[in-house]
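Feature request, filed as a ticket because there's no other form

It would be nice if the structure record came with a short human-readable summary line next to the tokens. Right now we just get the raw output. Example of a typical job, pasted below so the devs can see what we mean:
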Amino acid sequence: MTERGDDSEVGTVNSITFWLPNLPPSVNEIYAPGRSLYSSKPEWQIKPEWLIWRTNNAPYIPRFTIATGSFIRADLVFHYDYYYPRQRSRLRIVDAQNMIKFTVDTIARKLGFNDLLVKQGSWDSRHSETGGTVKVTLTEIINEDNDEH
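Raw output as currently delivered:
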């Protein structure tokens, strides 16, 4: 599902909301040591299962373009079951704040912008017994200082 926002927020040009169908990994889980093709030194590489996650979720990211010189606000809401299924009083360990980086990287890669343009945003988590999803709202922020640089 995709929703387009209006231009009512001061300093914004456009906004879009969409859902990713499953949770991304925590940054603590995405890298594994590997070998460089160009050096004998080990280097960290994204694990294959998370490259697959990125590929499988890319079709859910709609087109979104911003003007040259603008920034992006990314607001993320992670929906997942807070508790273990058979032990409803026991909290699951879900590192939602560490899911932000891989989510933003995946969106930036799909849309063709540098993730450094994401200068503002928020994250939240919500209890949901229907599985893990991510609600994403991207908003273009006009860089008021752009004319000075």
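Something like this underneath would help us a lot:
Residues 1-10 have pLDDT under 50 and may be disordered.
The first strand starts at residue 2 and ends at 4.
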